[in-house]
Amino acid sequence: PEVALEQADRCEQTNRKRRQLCEQIEKEAIALVESTPIPWKENRVLVVVSEGWHHGVIGIVASRLVERYGVPVFIGTYEEEEESKTKSKQKKPTMIRGSARSIDEFNVFDALNYCDDLLGKYGGHRAAGGFSFLAENLEQVKKRLSEFAHKCLEVEHLKPLVKVDAQASFSQIDFELYQQLEGLQPWGIGNSPPVFWTSNVRVVEQRAIGKTKDHLILTLQEANSDIQIKALAWRWGEYCPLPEYLDLAYKLQENHWQGNTSIELELVGVRLPKTPLNNNIEPISKPLKNSNVQKAVFTYNSRIYYCSKGIRELRIRNDKGNILAVNQGNRTGLLGKSRDEAKEVNVTKEPYFQLIKAALKAIEEENWSTDERG
């Protein structure tokens, strides 16, 4: 037992160091991409290289960057060439060694093979690979990878979108469903874990966890239901707080804690609800004619709002059912859930003035995008 405990502690220390390295390199890579800036959208591939990164974990970081940016990622770090170590005491980084991770439409091994004359050692498969090349070839490698990316990737591929398999209700999520899914293992290329989605989910509670508050733990409740379920969102700490209502995409996972076992969600994507809640709320004013109404959904101060604009009137509704109705040119508006209980407010003052500006901007952008699609 003493030897086992010692070995387990050594493993835990190594794993802790790995996590710290991954977090540090990921933050440095994101800062490099954002500050340089690196034109990954135009290149249709992201190549990021820096000194001092541990080549043993940069593959993990590459996967996280793929999730963040939605493009193939080639990440590398500088190191000494073997021959230079023996011929000179002066340490000079002459080689770049790295890892690659991809999206479905991009074959990593084919991309590396396309750069064959510029690379040293390389290998891999469709989804991932490793490589090394002379540091002086970096710009040529970037150019060659971009050429390959333009041959196989369209602009619409370059989105960090989540592919879902089926819509589900929280009432359907139980141990029986989880066990049925486990029977489909092993997961891998061509057999990914199923991703479900549920609409109009309320975020009852949320808080950042971890030493650096990088992750989120949430309590969720589906619309028109009393069922609540726990969820984890890895590396979503920077997005806290999330809006109160969302459409969610997630995987299922089993959680063991203090002798109890439960099924939880692992969030992989969110969006603002496509269908508004509280559809049967009595409007403050008469409904506007649909032919003259422009509608939009937007967020303001981390809350979701639904707005509609007619010829003269603008209406803004929050997720609690309160409606602000303003006529064009008026300094006052009506606020409440119905005309009988509505109170008059000065819309030239906060918080109404900025809220109205946000609503008008959302309607303008929605109307523009509709015209573009049409």
Question: Would you summarize the structure shown here?
Answer:
This protein is α+β, with helices and mostly antiparallel strands and 374 residues long.
Describe this structure in words.
The structure is a single chain. This protein has 374 residues and is α+β, with helices and mostly antiparallel strands. The protein has 8 helices and 17 strands. The protein has a 6-stranded antiparallel sheet with strand order 12-13-14-15-16-17, with helices on one face. It has a 5-stranded mixed sheet with strand order 1-2-3-5-4. The longest helix has 34 residues, at 2-35. The radius of gyration is 26 Å and the shape is globular. It starts with a helix and ends with a helix.
**How many strand elements?**
17
Number of helices: 8
Major pleated sheet: 6 strands, antiparallel
Low-confidence stretches: 278-291, 369-374
Question: What attributes does this structure have?
Answer:
disordered C terminus; 374 residues; 17 strands; single chain; alpha+beta
